[in-house]
Amino acid sequence: MTTTDDTSAIAASLTRRGKDRPDTLRKQADAALRAAVAAELQDVLDGRWAEVKDATRAVITEKNLRPDDTLSLDEARERTAAQMHDILATGAPRGTFRTEHGGTGDIGATLSGIETVGGADLSLMVKAGVQWGLWGGAVENLGTERHIPLIKDIIELRTLGSFAMTERGHGSDVQSLETTAVYDRDTHEFVINTPTPTAEKWYIGNAANHARMAAVFCQLYTPDADGELGESHGVHCIVVEVRDENGQAMPGVGIGDHGYKGGLKGVDNGTFTFDNVRVPRENLLNRFADVSEDGEYSSPIESVGARFFTMLGALIRGRITVGASAGAAARTSLTIATRYANQRRQFAPDDSLPENKLIEHRKHRLRLIPLIAKSYALQLATNQLIARIHELESADIDRTDMTKEQRWDQRELEAHAAALKAANTAHATATIQECREACGGAGYMTENLLTTFKADSDVFTTFEGDNVVMAQLAAKELLTGFSREVGDLKPLELVRFGLDNFGTLLKRRTAADTLIQNLVDSFTDREETSLFDPGYQVELLTEREDRLLMSLIRRIRPAQKMDPAEAADLVDKAQDHLLECAWAHVDRIVLESMLEAEASLPDGDSKKIFEQVRDVYVLDIIHSHSGWYQEQNLLTGTRTKAARAALNDLVDSLGPWSQTLVDAFAVPESVAGVPLLTAEEDMVTRAQTNPAAGTPGAGGSAGSAKSAE
């Protein structure tokens, strides 16, 4: 727990700074000091499950777990499937399963281990995520005791499977899935069908080659008292055997292969169709609902909507893993690009002087260092999210009868998971592209991995939840006091619920952490407080979140007096505002994660460097939204200009430490040591031996750095 002494120490360090000009970090430091700083920062970034991450890195190095784009499609798929056993050997996948099912119950270990794999090979990460996270997670979290033997086979890779939710016609709108499961009272079986072309299961991992079984999400029907087909009980999950022991499709099961995709060559995505496929009644994953032998449907959760969202809430781990792994891929890309920037030389300031390294050009620093800062911030927020889900899911909670406080915690967890999934994957997409460009022509070579990470991570913005939908979900949860029931509310009810619960929502947020509140209370005058004051930074980001939220409520308030169709149209037209609220919310919670991590660092070089990383993160946000801050009279034009100048000063100060910052990401050398870095080292050696030869030019990254100076 953070004390007032921690707050005072942070505040005291500010007295050594000018109001809006940062201190300059030492430029010269020996290798031992840099290694010590990197180690301290790595400890903070790795967090609670550091040992799991280290063990996974060791396996990545030993088994050379990294993409190989020279392989054919079939070769890549088989290689990835074989490497799953290397991941299992780390023990991390067992954590997501309860001890009585053959696991260890260490959920945080699994999420942290799979995240680390994502920093090396996203195909392997996705394959592992499908097997243990989605397929295994569905059986583990939606099934009961009768499914334990299957769970043990899933853990040990004896039964590979698929998570068959998405259909050609419906992805994010899961409640509208069309695949049907009709109970046959005479045979005690479910009959699975694909009733329309749009009901074909689509983009399903493991489907094309390796799945023996699938967790199939479908509309569940039981006969009524007269034996006629009644109404759907909503979407449920049923285990369906899709291949026999020889790998052949089961009768009535149609299997397709999507072939080459934009990336993820090692993942065998495909399709499923079902034509009167019969499965035993016991294959229904019946934790939240069941069907008796005589066809009577029962559930401890009466509401169809509440039951649906309770079911999906139990599957949140996949969303967290996707976001975390995207962040890991971004960190690997930044490691490569930053190391290159500290080696590659282009343009001498004078004919008598050596050429500058890329990192010595301010424009290049502005390309990379704010992205490094955001990677730090998102990593720390993700660590907190993983810790939260670990604590919540390790507790003995009956999800069919949760207390009010447990429901609050679950809603907040789901909102943060959605928000950070969107933030991490959007950051990865932008960061990997910037890193590719920052390495010029060399960055475009497949052997240097950046194009592979770019291709493999691209889909992360849409699978496990489209980012636009995820951001809207987070904003709706924010608007309604993080209420999962928003999914059952009409637009008019949404407005009323939000207005009624806004005060409670703000109270819950501001009372979250003593450190943050003490920091906010420590400043009194906006114009006189330093831009580097952490309390002021929290206040600025919180003001943006709160004002956007209040203006959203005012914007949709007229829906209270409209008919349902008009209200729905009004709320739909406010979606841009919902998204702004979501991103502002992410900015604020991520900053708070950084401040909590900062308080754990001892005084010294590491803490000074981390403070400036945090400053870069915040000032980059303020600069990006400078117009809004001026419109709201929260910052004057003079201060927004000062924020931009301070950002320049900060990247100048951190430039000499940029490689140390990415060393703290601890990317295994077997992954990060790509040929472009080795080639650059060779060129530097040759140039030192024969200075007249200089360093040959390549691809346009340095040109852009020079022209922007």
Helix content: 40-55%
What is the quaternary state of this protein?
Answer: single chain
Biggest pleated-sheet summary: 6 strands, mixed
The secondary structure category is alpha+beta
Distance between the termini: 45 Å
Identify the overall geometry.
globular
Rounded average pLDDT:
87
Cα-atom radius of gyration = 27 Å
CATH topology of one domain: Butyryl-CoA Dehydrogenase, subunit A, domain 2
Corresponding CATH architecture of one domain: Beta Barrel
Unreliable parts: 11-18, 482-490, 497-512, 690-709
CATH superfamily of one domain: Butyryl-CoA Dehydrogenase, subunit A, domain 2
CATH class of one domain: Mainly Beta
User: How large is the share of residues in beta strands?
Assistant: 5-15%
Give the beta-strand count. 11
The number of helical segments is 25
Subcellular location: Peroxisome
Protein name: acyl-CoA oxidase
Pfam family, one: ACOX
GO biological process, one term: lipid homeostasis
